[in-house]
Write a structure and sequence with these properties.
By secondary structure, the protein is of the alpha+beta class. The chain is 59% helix and 11% strand. The strands form two sheets. It has a four-stranded antiparallel beta sheet with strand order 2-3-1-4. A two-stranded antiparallel sheet has the order 5-6. The protein is elongated and about 125 Å long. The relative contact order is 0.05. The model is unreliable at 1-5 and 16-21 (pLDDT under 50).
Length: 290
């Protein structure tokens, strides 16, 4: 059979001699191959009768070698079990470290959030106070040094500021057909998709008594609203939405001013049809055709 140590030596001595020569798996395979060659059959066909014709010294040698292989396999298994236990212990230590680091990270995030919240609150308070003082000074000047503005007036102004901030994220859509049982979010998504925009939004019909009520779209940021407004002219080239008009969510005062601008724009187009007229910066502009 393969390369072995002296069979008369104890197992502990022999395993040292073979420790660096062959792996246990290789020795087991060699043992099975050698015995199979002598008994003239594969291990799956071995029976007691196959070994009767062999002498006791031969059988003794095979048994001794088989026992030695089992002894080595046992040592390998024990080594692997010890290695697994070490790895499990190290994994537990690493897990404890990860949990500790996660706890520290959460604590630091909480501290940062609290710090940021405090900074925002301070900034907002300072800004509001500054705006109130500025408004109070303006009113005082307009009244010729009279008493400062009332709390109710200030509340009205602040409410107007808040509403203006809310509208900065809104869009109003006109001409978007309305049907019973409509899936408005899907319809708005299709509309915005024609502009290559896929923002997060909320959409609802506003007003009453109209066959096709306007749709108010609320976005997460004013930047998203601005990005959509830049592309609204594309809808004219889309058959399904060619009569749809998207505009900012304006206050009543802004809508009244816009109405006057549009009326002026139409008037100029009639009076000066050979010139190009458009609205920009809150006024009607006209250019000579080149």
């Amino acid at each position: 059979m393969g390369e072995t140590a002296d069979l008369n030596e104890p197992y502990k001595m022999r395993i040292m001699a073979l420790h660096t020569k062959e792996t246990v798996d290789e020795d087991v395979s060699t043992w099975f191959a050698d015995v199979s060659e002598i008994v003239k059959c594969e291990p799956k066909d071995w029976t007691a009768e196959k070994f009767l014709k062999h002498t006791k010294p031969v059988l003794s040698s095979w048994l001794n070698e088989a026992g030695f292989l089992m002894y080595r396999q046992t040592n390998v298994v024990l080594d692997l079990m010890e290695c697994i236990e070490r790895q499990k212990t190290e994994a537990l230590r690493d897990k404890d470290k990860i949990i500790r680091l996660q706890g520290e990270l959460i604590n630091r995030k909480d501290e940062q959030l609290k710090s940021l919240q405090a900074a925002v609150e301070t900034t907002v308070q300072d800004t509001v106070q500054s705006q109130i003082q500025s408004f109070s000074e303006i009113v005082k000047k307009n009244r010729g040094g009279g008493p400062s503005c009332s709390i109710e007036n200030l509340k009205t102004v602040m409410k107007s500021v808040v509403l203006e901030e809310d509208r900065s994220k809104n869009l109003i859509v006109y001409g978007l057909g309305e049907e019973d049982g409509e899936q408005l979010p899907a319809l708005v998504s299709e509309l915005l998709g024609e502009l290559d925009e896929k923002p997060h939004f909320e959409a609802t019909r506003i007003g009453s008594g109209s066959a096709s009520r306007p749709v108010k779209i609320t976005l997460r940021t004013s930047t998203a609203r601005h990005q959509i407004l830049l592309k609204t002219s594309r809808l004219k080239r889309v058959q399904k939405f060619k009569d749809v008009y998207i505009c900012p969510d304006r206050s009543r005062e802004e809508r009244d001013a816009r109405t006057l601008l549009v009326a002026d724009l139409k008037k100029r187009k009639v009076e000066h049809p050979k010139r190009t007229h458009y609205i920009r910066g809150g006024k009607v502009c006209s250019l000579d055709e080149t």
